[in-house]
Amino acid sequence: MPSARHAATSPAPSPAAPRKHTAVLAEHVSLQGKRVADIGCGDGGLAKWMARQGATVLGIDCSAPLLAQARAGTPVPGATFREGVAERLPLPDGALDVAIFFNSLHHVPADAMAMALAEARRALAAHGLLLVVEPIAEGENFELGRAVDDETAVRAAALARLREAEAAGGWQRVSEFAYDSLAVARSFEAWRDRHAHIAPERAAALAREETALRARFQTLGRAVPEAEGGGRAFLQPMRVTLLRRTAAPA
């Protein structure tokens, strides 16, 4: 049976060498002078990077603690952050040139994913771009966290809702492809605490499975040299879908 990455609905296999997310984004989306929403922005790292590339970026997230992290430190001109949910974007019609779900669509409640994609379309100007970057349910990083939160079903649901939105009309496929990334954790404790912070409901499972997770942390992935910060890096295949907004669906 084919793996998730090689299934008929998936793009061609990713190249062997892992890539940085920002390098992939820069290759496929022009950011200079663009109005961008980072939907599910988390701690704001990607939104700030895009602002440094010349975009005006609104980072949107439903987590107050993550937004506090995003707003901390030296402000980056062009990057602002606002609390909100993907299925009710705090934006007027046609306000965006680019809408991005980076590793976030599968975190939207399953019954709200379709509305989140419709909201992104509503907020995009004519010919605006929707970029959806989602982790594929395979790879070392997925296997490490699977015992705590198996996201196979929600990742499949996100892909299904994306396919349905595209089939309904109003979008033109620009490209779809896969690439391998590396998820780096400086220590097991850093990995554990990050997962607990992103999803507090995982705390009990993290505590219950800690011994097994520690062992998997040391056997999966690859060591990062101390000169590069130390820790371990875990392979995570990603799927990129880039759509352009067209006329309203029939």
What does this structure look like?
It is a single chain. The chain is of the alpha/beta class. It has a domain at 16-137 and 148-180 and 237-245: 3-Layer(aba) Sandwich (Rossmann fold), CATH 3.40.50. It is 34% helix and 26% strand. It contains nine helices and eight strands. It has helices at 21-28, 45-52, 64-71, 113-123, 140-146, 152-168, 188-198, 203-208, 210-219, and strands at residues 35-39, 56-61, 79-83, 96-102, 124-135, 171-185, 222-223, 232-245. Strands 1, 2, 3, 4, 5, 6, 7 and 8 form an eight-stranded mixed sheet that branches. Helix 2 (45-52) links the parallel strand 1 (35-39) and strand 2 (56-61). Helix 4 crosses helix 6 (152-168). The longest helix is centred in the middle third of the chain and has 17 residues, at 152-168. The chain is globular.
